[in-house]
Amino acid sequence: MTHVRRLSALTMLVATLLTGCGAPPGQPRTSSVTLAPSDILEFDALYTANCAGCHGANGRGGAAIALADPVYLAIADTGSIRADIAAGVHGTSMPAFAQHAGGMLTEKQIDALVSGIRSSWSRPAALAGANPPSYAATSTGDSHRGAAVYQTFCQSCHGTDGHGGPKGSAITNDSFLALTSDQGLRTAVIVGRPELGAPDWRGYVAGRALSSVEGRPMSDQEVTDVVSWLASHRVATPGQPYFTAQIDQR
Domains of the chain (ranges plus CATH)? Predict the structure, then answer.
């Protein structure tokens, strides 16, 4: 009888230990296993590790545009966002993140980022029925017309010839233009930089009334033309505010 009781007690002890550990002795609990970097699919972790440094915490903007901007998410389709993340933007500070392009993220991780950006920050109602210009240009821009558009819609903040003013930065600066693609310029003109107080194509910033000079939004063609004017200020050797003489090496 005593032997049976001891055996029963031992059985209960073993069962308790196994239940408490949640795994056989010598094996780690599932919750204690660290995922390999390529297995992480949780949006917040992926965004924080790969995007927040430029686009800001919670997509609120930083060195690069805010991804949590409903205007941006209204004009940029899923394919465009995914392509920029995967392949980067040539000639700018946006790197490629896909493994096939030299980055560190798998296709599933890129899909998780795109899906998370959309599901977390899209707010279609924020446009209040407005019809924004297209994400990509659909016509050829004219820099001469763009100069007039700049004077009408942009000069009051960014100053004469885009050299900077009391309310806006210099946007014809050669170093700035060297790090910004034409599409990046177009996106900024359409969506603005709300985190910096810069209005969108309607002259609108959250919390303020429309403020465009003519009391109307910019047309699609006007956006295209002013981007052409801005791009015309690019130089061959940006970041050199001095004359570099050629050295005769003969």
Answer: 40-124 (1.10.760.10), 143-231 (1.10.760.10)
